[in-house]
């Protein structure tokens, strides 16, 4: 690694020490479905967001609930203190598309239709009020 890249990598690592985040890679749901649930909780207080996700009927809400719990645990490890009811806020939630499994479905007259099984990457960033 060159000197310039090492300097920027070290700066990024220092910035991440003060950020409280968790990420989920290669989640096997489509990004569009995950973004729908992520839009519900963006900007909410953490414990209110957890209760919203707990009672949401979409399948991706359980994965996002686990991810927020992981981000809370990361906060506890970095700061050494438990979060209060109104201390932490979901600052950012962003969903990026991951890899796509390409499959074939049989079609009439010897043809085949293409199926894309999508996946996504989700990152949750928490911040103090």
CATH class: Alpha Beta
Describe the global form. flat
What's the structural domain tally? 1
Overall pLDDT level: 94
Order of helices and strands: HEHHHEE
Number of helices: 4
Describe the strand arrangement of the main beta sheet, using strand numbers.
Answer: 1-3-2
Query: Roughly how much helix do the residues carry, as a percent range?
Result: 40-55%
Strand content: 25-35%
Counting DSSP E segments of at least 2 residues, the number of strands comes to 3
Under CATH, the homologous superfamily reads Ribosomal protein L22/L17
Q: Keywords for this structure?
A:
single chain, alpha+beta, Ribosomal Protein L22, Chain A, three-stranded antiparallel sheet, flat
Describe this structure in words.
- With 129 residues, the chain is of the alpha+beta class.
- It has a single domain (19-128), classed as Ribosomal Protein L22, Chain A (Alpha-Beta Complex), CATH 3.90.470.
- Helix content is 43%, strand content 34%.
- It contains four helices and three strands, in the order H-E-H-H-H-E-E.
- Strands 1-3-2 form a three-stranded antiparallel beta sheet.
- Helix 3 packs antiparallel against helix 4 (60-79).
- It is flat.
List the helices and strands and how they pair.
Elements: H1 3-17, E1 20-27, H2 31-41, H3 46-54, H4 60-79, E2 88-106, E3 112-128
Antiparallel strand pairs: 1-3, 2-3
Helix pairs in contact: 3-4
């Amino acid at each position: 690694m060159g000197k310039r890249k090492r300097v920027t990598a070290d700066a990024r690592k220092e910035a991440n020490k003060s950020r409280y985040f968790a990420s989920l890679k290669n989640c096997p749901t489509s990004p569009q479905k995950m973004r729908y649930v992520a839009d519900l909780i963006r900007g909410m207080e953490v414990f209110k967001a957890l209760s919203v996700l707990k009672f949401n009927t979409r399948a991706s809400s359980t994965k996002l609930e686990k991810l927020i719990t992981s981000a809370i645990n990361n906060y506890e490890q970095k700061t050494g203190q438990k979060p209060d009811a109104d201390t932490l806020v979901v600052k950012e939630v962003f969903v990026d598309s991951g890899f796509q499994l390409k499959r074939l479905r049989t079609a009439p007259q010897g043809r085949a239709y293409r199926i894309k099984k999508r996946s996504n990457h989700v990152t949750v960033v928490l911040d103090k009020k």
